[in-house]
Amino acid sequence: MTQSRSRITPPADAGFVPDAAALTELDEWFRRYDALAEAGDVAGTADLAMFPLNTVTDDAAGEGSAQQLDRAAYLEMMGGVLGGGGGGDLRMESRRTPYFLTPSLVVVFTEAEFTVDGERQQVRYADLLVKSGGQWRFQTMVQGGWGGQPG
User: Is the domain 20-142 a CATH 3.40.50.360 member?
Assistant: First the structure.
């Protein structure tokens, strides 16, 4: 196998470093998202997304997969995850580490603990957020272990 050289030159990366205002804005976005999620407001979380939404995961055998969701598919999937606000007590505690690629692209790594009806579960995941029209929107969700899950 031979390797070809690309003639495309990537854009210069000045190494964007967010200021306090950018970090505060992102933190406020996540507080809003978390409040909607804790309330089981799946439609509200969908309002913060950029569709089509990419999801990336793997299964217990380590087989990776990706799919794109439109709003209806997202509502169906997340309705099962968040329960539509109709039953259990959900609490979330998250520690997030953002990596800004540019002022309008950020990858956020999250370590979280979810407590549902007294049962605690630790998770790690990543999101790609895109600023469009002056608003942050999540566009890609990455978390292991969802492949092969029912629903």
Answer: no
